[in-house]
């Protein structure tokens, strides 16, 4: 058997095993050394390939696709710095627990550390940001080595999903010639007895013993002022269970916009979504001191909530994690509960009291929430504000679609202005490392899952990832981008740095003064500019009737935006405090 046949069969068995384990999508960054992987993936009948030229964009495209589907997505690149360009997306995947299988092609061992081109150190190059690393053997096609290829494929796939999901790297040293021979018979090994690996996985879920559940239920029974909190979460099935838990115990539940609790058909009477606005005030935070806090998912976006928790150090706080991890930046004495969150909710619902209790505590949160919502949703400005942009999107975004949100001001405005709705909307954001890079690519990748996406993004994030628009153009993916252009880093206007008039603009404001309509023209987008909330709604509705890429630019003023937000917050806080008299 010659080397080309060995290369073909070895690579084909690895990829076919991935398909057998459930791999449905691969994102390929073109290159030479990765030829065996790229071509064989494209030949496989049950795996969809996406070609994304820029590796950094490709990494985030795969991240968005995996985040939306909650399934592992493969990434393929050539050797050298191509693999290094995946790094930001891998970091984000690690912290946001998104399953990525990174397959890096490499020079064979004899061409390493001898000055060969495109040969860098790829062994464990992503360090602790991958859950598992394996360097594959040089291809051979003996039955033993084909079985080895399948076992490693099954292992790699399993590691992306086990415990906390996340990225895995498998490194492939390939010798030349690199082109597989697809004229060979039965390259997928369908006629052999070793068609599939014997690595079957039977995995259960963690759950608490009855006496442990009783301890938590006793805490609920002994207190009238409990508080549930739900942070970023991609599992929409959990929403109905935790909302039912809040209702059965008559407890308020603070719902982060990324928790998937604010949207959908589940009951939301106990959902508090405007808490960021009124928890900005220290006196209100003190007034709303709970007896305990139970948090599901990651830390919420709201910095006001962070202050709220830090100021109540003596309050028992519990963080529920499905498998493992320590996600609590407050420094509080936090207890961790490792169990399936949905199952825990069902166990606690079964122990709820027959009579409703805690009505005054719940009513206080609901009243403050209604006051905040009234002011946040009130008024229409002549020149659209960034908060009104979110209100407009929330009004007209259609069912069964996704809202992808950029970091910095975009996600904070969604937190403030996207209220509870019965619409079936997923709200996603890259909140693992909270970076502004790769946001367009992530949203376009989410669109590749088959559902229309609306992306809300600021001008600096847009500038960082304009390359991500190419995949939208190339595949005619249905995505509407709402580009909020305040000519710089709007979030810094709310921070103390804004008082430094000498250095603020060049270091923090960072105006780019870019005509973004040129980017729309370059990538074939339908491009419009709007100046009112109603015009935005009209253009959004129009874009939802079109295929392909649409960009709606909204120009705002950073200083005016800051004043508008602060006026809203002041009105809310004043009215709540007046109600104490």
TrEMBL record:
Cofactor: binding comment: Binds 1 thiamine pyrophosphate per subunit.
Gene3D superfamilies the UniProt entry points to: 3.40.50.970, TPP-binding domain
Enzyme Commission (EC) number: 2.2.1.9
Domain of life: Bacteria
Catalytic activity: isochorismate + 2-oxoglutarate + H(+) = 5-enolpyruvoyl-6-hydroxy-2-succinyl-cyclohex-3-ene-1-carboxylate + CO2
Top-level EC class as recorded in UniProt: transferase
Complexes and interactors: Homodimer.
Membership in a protein family: Belongs to the TPP enzyme family. MenD subfamily.
Protein name, per record: 2-succinyl-5-enolpyruvyl-6-hydroxy-3-cyclohexene-1-carboxylate synthase
The organism of origin for this protein: Oceanobacillus locisalsi
Organism ancestry: Bacteria, Bacillati, Bacillota, Bacilli, Bacillales
